Amino acid sequence: MLILGIDTATKVCSVALTLDGRVLAEHNSTDGIAHSRRLLPEIDGLLKTAQVAKEDIDMVAVSMGPGSFTGLRIGLATAEAIAYARKRFLHGVNTLEALAYNLRGEKKIISPLIDAQKGNFYQALYQWQGDELVCLEPVAIVNQGKLWERIGDRPAIVTGECGALQNLPEHIELATEDLRSPLAKSLCAIAERNFDEEKDKNFFGLEPFYIRRSEAEELWEQRHR
């Protein structure tokens, strides 16, 4: 199966093409250019590099959050448009699960984090059990103290937007920097593993995993109480 992966949930714009689990091409951009300007040229360049036509794509895998409200909408709208235009499968992937998938085979508890603003993080806990990535704790919004509490005294590795963390407990380490960013090739691997022929036929059934309302919505509510 030829899969196009799209991840715009964070500041990173990541796209990848995989064929039956093999990465044909990938590109991960952190140059600060807005996803709305960056994404389509990245996809076009990816297809040219892999010498693949858009009509050859079998499925589009897209990051569903949690993450940036604007970034998630851009990624999902693009994925839906490609899937609808070509009548291809569309599969949404939890962003934190994809971050954990970067550390394939890691024996410690994996704690992916995404900045939730105001000193908080989106956090979930995963662990590899054989060749299966198991979710131990679901996504929650936590502060730094609470995220240590959720891990407890278990040896763990933290990944994602974790560079600002301070005073890590001795039994917790940070993932290497090259594995902390969302990678679209991980989306592709998860989508292929969890492919559901009936469910993934729905081009417009996906909803971004926001968890909370956007800051703009919260400000609007405060002003109109």
What structural category arises from helix and sheet content? alpha/beta
Unreliable stretches (pLDDT < 50, length at least 5) are 216-221
Gross geometry: globular
| Beta-strand content | 25-35%
Helix-strand sequence: EEEHEHEHEEEHEEHH
Helix content: 25-40%
Key descriptive features of the protein:
five-stranded mixed β-sheet, 225 residues, 10 strands, single chain, 30% helix, alpha/beta, 6 helices
Your description of this structure?
The longest helix has 18 residues, at 69-86. Helix 1 crosses helix 2 and helix 3 packs across helix 5. The termini are far apart. A hairpin with a 2-residue loop joins strand 2 and strand 3 (22-29). Helices cover 30% and strands 31% of the residues. The chain is of the alpha/beta class.
What's the topology here?
Blueprint: E1 2-7, E2 13-19, E3 22-29, H1 35-50, E4 59-63, H2 69-86, E5 89-93, H3 95-101, E6 109-117, E7 120-129, E8 132-143, H4 144-151, E9 156-160, E10 172-174, H5 184-193, H6 215-223
Parallel strand pairs: 1-4, 4-5, 6-9, 9-10
Antiparallel strand pairs: 1-2, 2-3, 6-7, 7-8
Helix pairs in contact: 1-2, 3-5
